[in-house]
């Protein structure tokens, strides 16, 4: 959902800049710029992918509202007086999970980290013999579900902790 800017080092005497994009999902696309004609060209790229500034000033690429479909290789090729230069960026998209905590029909606390990328880690404040279950989705996200099972303890309040590269969250519930 955020914007991402991929840099391409400007060189003196640029005659051409090309971004070649190979996403994991969908077909390739490219953006090109020729200084002699002051002309840009865009082939098969979505509206969310474009030059950040004018390519003659700064050849950076901007992706608006990044989503998992944007993952892939982004290569900037610069043709300048000093030669040809390539820079490659590998874009990986992180998606924070949505945390839900509820009681199942038997009064067991259930903790769910919904649609995160990569899969979140779930733990309980008190020891539990729970084995989390993972469900993959078509968009590359993963939902993790964990049921708290206490070792013969009569608990009134249980805390679930979700760890993910985008952050950590805790919630408590009494079932």
UniProtKB/TrEMBL annotation:
Domain of life: Eukaryota
Alphabetical list of SUPFAM superfamilies matching this protein: Immunoglobulin (SSF48726)
Compartmental location: Membrane
Any single GO CC term annotated in Swiss-Prot or TrEMBL for this entry: external side of plasma membrane
Any GO BP annotation: regulation of neuroinflammatory response
Chain ranges of the Ig-like domain: 1-92, 99-174
GO molecular function annotations of the record: signaling receptor activity
Keyword terms: Disulfide bond, Glycoprotein, Membrane, Receptor, Transmembrane, Transmembrane helix
Protein name per Swiss-Prot or TrEMBL: Cell surface glycoprotein CD200 receptor 1-A
Family: Belongs to the CD200R family.
Pfam families reported for this sequence: C2-set_2, V-set
Entry membrane topology: Single-pass membrane protein
